[in-house]
Amino acid sequence: MNDTSLPAPFADLEPYVAQWAMPDEKTRAIKRLSSDMETLKRFHAATAPRIEEIICFLNAYPNTPHDLPPEVGRLFRLAQMIMEASAPIDLQWDSPNMEDVFPYERMRFHAVSGS
């Protein structure tokens, strides 16, 4: 197995792992904010239709991401990025970031308890 492998039912999503399965909330936010809308739209179109299937699959595992098998952990992180990328698409924003909101540069990200 390589570091982009996913569980067999989701092998078709493996091309997205290296660039989109971010390890934490901060890197997901940075990825969204640094991507142009066309890139987000392509990622969303390719992955969002599978999100319900992904969630059903992940529900069979404990709710402790650090205890997941590596390929399932990658799927979990990819699902988090799908949801992160969905906001500007689903809400029809003009850019990956909203105007007139708290500046990203001032945000502080904290590790999840128990991780």
Summarize the structure.
By secondary structure, this protein is mainly alpha-helical.
> Which segments are poorly predicted (pLDDT under 50) over 5 or more consecutive residues?
none
Rg (C-alpha, Å)? 14 Å
Q: Sheet with the most strands?
A: none
Mean pLDDT: 87
Count helical runs: 5
Terminal residue distance: 25 Å
The percent range for strand residues is under 5%
Structure description:
This protein is mainly α and 115 residues long. The chain has one domain (13-97). Helices cover 47% and strands 0% of the residues. It contains 5 helices and no strands. The chain has helices at 17-20, 25-34, 37-47, 51-58, 70-90. It starts with 16 loop residues before the first helix and ends in a 25-residue tail after the last helix. The relative contact order is 0.20. The mean pLDDT is 87.
Structural topology:
Layout: H1 17-20, H2 25-34, H3 37-47, H4 51-58, H5 70-90
Helix pairs in contact: 3-5, 4-5
What distinguishing features does this structure have?
single chain; 0% strand; mainly alpha; 47% helix; 115 residues; 5 helices; globular
